[in-house]
Amino acid sequence: MNINQIDLRLLRSFIAVARAGTFVKASQVLSITQSALSQQMKELSSHLDLPIFEKKGRQLILTNFGHGLLKKIDPLLDQIEEALLQSSIDDQNIAGTLRVGATNTYSKIIALPTCMGLLRENPSLKIELQELSAQKVLRELLEGAIDIAILPQDYQFSELYWHELITEQFSVIGAPNTIKELPRNITLKSLAKYDLAALNGQFLMRQKIDAQARMEGVSLNLRMEVSTMGDLLEIAKSGEILALGSSIALANDKKLMAKTIKGVFLTRTAAVCWRKTKFVTSAMTEFQEKAIKISSSLQSTITKRKSPA
């Protein structure tokens, strides 16, 4: 093994190939040609005693040795990169790029204001924020394409650390005069006679609503299904259809009112999460701290805006 010939360039390329699974995808991430990347991997392999990849069809699969190498060097390279970036600036501002993922509601209400706060305080920092489905955020997080994410805590994986941010009970949302006419204790059964709108079946929130309806033996009159909470709020503003959704999404909207719906399945917790093998950068730490503060403020806003019984 000739480790003296192995530089950061080769190791960065190795990590990119390991995450992407193909030279095509990895070369796009690194902005180099496939032939150049292939040559780098041949060079890295020549310095090691054991193979790091094996081919299965068009996919490159890590060997056991490759898995062990990735697990050890991935966080170390992040640490080296941050040290180099921080040493290149004169003050204590955070530098580098932070890659953030979040689902629709959490992206707009928690992740985006958190990112904006970080950017205001750290002029040398860049942030890539992606709004994706929960499944895609998880995949990107586990593959190392993003650094930190905000997700419903229902998606638990042993490879991830989780820190709770805010817990909410699902709500019925509509114009204030309509919501005030609803009974004090709302259940899905009490909403069965109303025209309703909800997220479509690919979303965890909708799956929980359906599970609660089955448990109560209720058939809901779902007149419309949509793919974002923003669309649900617009429907609720029409005054014609009540929306089943997130009280968090309603926090900054003064034209609507919400009442929580009782039900064991009708709750979710937002959490900030990251890979256990990921070196926790200063940007990640600051993101988590700001997300906690914003979530705490959001919880207070929601509590104050609860409609009178």
Short description, anyone?
The chain is an alpha/beta fold and 309 residues long. It is built from 10 helices and 12 strands. It is 44% helix and 22% strand.
Keywords:
single chain; 309 residues; alpha/beta; five-stranded mixed sheet; 10 helices; 44% helix; elongated
Notes on the structure:
- It contains 10 helices and 12 strands.
- It has helices at 8-20, 23-30, 34-46, 64-87, 104-121, 134-143, 176-180, 204-216, 229-237, 282-304, and strands at residues 53-56, 59-62, 96-102, 125-131, 148-152, 160-169, 171-174, 196-199, 222-226, 242-245, 257-260, 267-275.
- Helix content is 44%, strand content 22%.
- The chain has a 5-stranded mixed sheet, with helices on both faces. A 5-stranded mixed sheet has the order 9-8-10-7-11. The protein has a two-stranded antiparallel sheet with strand order 1-2.
- The protein has 309 residues and is α/β, with parallel strands linked by helices.
Distance between the termini: 73 Å
Secondary-structure class: alpha/beta
Across the major sheet, the strand order is: 4-3-5-12-6
Low-confidence stretches: none
Number of helical segments with 4 or more residues: 10
Tell me the radius of gyration.
24 Å
**What is the percentage of strand-forming residues?**
15-25%
In N-to-C order, the SSE pattern is HHHEEHEHEHEEEHEHEHEEEH
The count of DSSP E runs of length 2 or more, i.e. the number of strands, is: 12
Q: Major sheet, described briefly?
A: 5 strands, mixed
Helix percentage range = 40-55%
Shape: elongated
- Integer average pLDDT: 86
